[in-house]
Specification:
There is one protein chain. This protein has 345 residues and is α+β, with helices and mostly antiparallel strands. A four-stranded antiparallel β-sheet has the order 6-5-7-8. A two-stranded antiparallel sheet has the order 1-2. Strands 3-12 form a two-stranded antiparallel ribbon. It folds into two domains: 183 residues, no CATH class; 89 residues, PDZ domain (Pdz3 Domain). It is built from nine helices and twelve strands.
Amino acid sequence: MASILPNIPYIIMAVLAFSLLVIIHELGHFIMCKLNGVKVSEFSLGMGPKLFGIKGKETEYLIKAFPVGGYVKMEGEEENSNDPRSFTNKTPVQKLSIVSAGAIMNLILAVVLFAIVGAAKGYVLPIIGQVVANSPAMHSGLQVGDKITKIDKVNIERWDEFINVVYASKGQSMNIELVRNSKVKEISLKPVKNVKENRYMIGIAASGVEKKLNFGESVGYGFSQTVDTAKQTFGFFGTIFKGQFSGSDVGGPISIMRISTKAAQTGLTTLLYFTALMSVQLGIFNIIPFPALDGGWIFMLLFEIISGKKLDDNKVGTINYIGFMFLMALMVVIVIKDIVSPMKF
């Protein structure tokens, strides 16, 4: 108990950060419901038993026991309704704007949080500060002080951009353009896999030289980080669908809270950065075309818009119910895995 007490402020910060992701996501749905004239009976943060709520003009705002997920309960979402303000009585385009708004808001939040981090800390320049002995970097001739400018003709401005390209290389040879003593040089090398860390490396470390950003540069950094994170997230989901992943790479709410708490202990900017990462991942996870997820709705609504044929509401409800039950079962399995075999970080 004594070891937990000092971490309580950081745990609270982690819970608030995770709650922000859910609030922003559901707020996107809620705002578009209002703009499209859809009646909302409940706006809930969390799942499970109700802790307390505030009743508005037509919407009850709820806080529930488990700070995992949330929802916006729309008129006609789960049953047929003759109310002109029901979700089912809106056009496919209106429905699409409502169901896609949550993921869009998560991506917008990520841009904002990354921009704040960029304004607060700047970013590390791609300048080499250390070359590991007997590494691909050493054998290829890379030196301390080299500034990396391109990889395979792609411009590199930040250290994390360079590292992400190396991680994604899968050991393929790459051409690195760099500046050394005001002269441009080109070097070719092959990253090698670090089995312990399960990632590709070339054996260098950053110098730690940072670039401070103005407002415009911070916003640009926010956009570029969001795009890069989205690409990595799509790549990760791709490995899951192909079965090319380890169970140790997957975690649930417990792992998220543990990592968030560690991030909070490191500092506010680290927590904001991690929250931005999670916001991108949550947004992309929700657009996977699976029943009960926003992506399932998006897929069906795009089918309606393109084909001009309305899907049977009862069949859609049944499919979404089955999908929801599957997701709940999957969540239980992930939580058990979190307890029995937590992620290592």
